[in-house]
From TrEMBL:
Cited InterPro entries: Bact_HTH_transcr_reg (IPR050679), Chorismate_lyase_/UTRA_dom_sf (IPR028978), Tscrpt_reg_HTH_GntR (IPR000524), UTRA (IPR011663), WH-like_DNA-bd_sf (IPR036388), WH_DNA-bd_sf (IPR036390)
SMART domains, per the entry: HTH_GNTR, UTRA
Highest taxon, organism lineage: Bacteria
Protein name listed in UniProt: GntR family transcriptional regulator
Positions in coiled-coil regions: none
Annotated ranges, domain HTH gntR-type: 4-71
Gene3D superfamilies listed in its UniProt record: Chorismate lyase-like, Winged helix-like DNA-binding domain superfamily/Winged helix DNA-binding domain
Length: 236
């Protein structure tokens, strides 16, 4: 049996152990214990653990060992709200409202929404949570003329559902950009993760059933718990 086969067997054993028996943050056996149990080298064990770490199934703490990571939340390319994403995964979506008010669109938001910089928009800033755990900091801007009275209602649920129920606005498509960033201290504190850690910034302009731009959103996701899945095909 070669090292590649040994590495694969060990990886599969640990993957099943994590999925079926171990709770998040449970400690895995030490490298020495695994090497003795499976009759493999420490290097083979280390390779299996590194693969699990790349898959975000485990995380390592220097001097303490390897621990089971919370399952990562993945999102496909469908235009769905944060609340819909969480419900689809059996998680309870929540919001912590940071601020909400009416302001001038400004150059960037105005351009995205087809407004002049002086026109009014509703700006809603929230921390979105899954089962009470912060997942992202979300800022949304909407043309004030399209959503009169929005600030008079609750803003702790799905904004997309509110647009549909209260204003008959159905979002059908979006132009979206995803980029990597490093968290500043303030955003890291909101997400309850260390400062200067990795994050994903999603910039989105969503369009309604008449193909009018209705929402400009910038969301910063903690990279240790959130991932985007894309299906790609070759042309021809």
């Amino acid at each position: 049996m070669d090292q590649t086969t040994k590495h694969g067997i060990l990886h599969e054993h640990l993957r099943r152990l994590i999925e079926r028996e171990l709770a998040p943050h449970a400690r895995l056996p030490a490298e020495r214990e695994l090497a003795e149990q499976f009759g493999v080298s420490r290097m083979t064990v280390r390779q299996a653990l590194e693969r699990l770490e790349r898959e975000r199934r485990v995380y390592r703490v220097r001097g303490a060992g390897t621990f089971v990571a919370r399952p990562a939340i993945t999102k496909g390319i469908e235009l769905t709200s944060f609340s819909e994403d969480m419900r689809g995964r059996g998680l309870r979506a929540g919001s912590v409202l940071r601020s909400a008010g009416i302001t001038a669109a400004g150059a960037e938001v105005g351009f995205a929404l087809g407004l002049s910089p002086a026109e009014e928009v509703v700006h809603v800033s929230r921390v979105r949570t899954a089962d009470g755990v912060p997942m992202c900091v979300e800022d949304s801007w909407l043309p004030a003329a399209a959503v009169p009275g929005l600030l008079d209602g609750a803003l702790d649920g799905s904004l997309y559902e509110t647009l549909l129920v209260r204003y008959r606005i159905s979002l059908r498509r979006a132009e979206q950009t995803i980029r990597a960033t490093v968290l500043d201290r303030d955003t890291a504190a909101l997400l309850e993760v260390p400062a200067f850690g990795p994050a994903l910034v999603v910039e989105r302009t969503a369009f309604d059933q008449r193909d009018r731009p209705v929402e400009r959103a910038v969301s910063t996701y903690r990279a240790d718990r959130y991932a985007f899945e894309l299906e790609v095909t070759r042309p021809g």
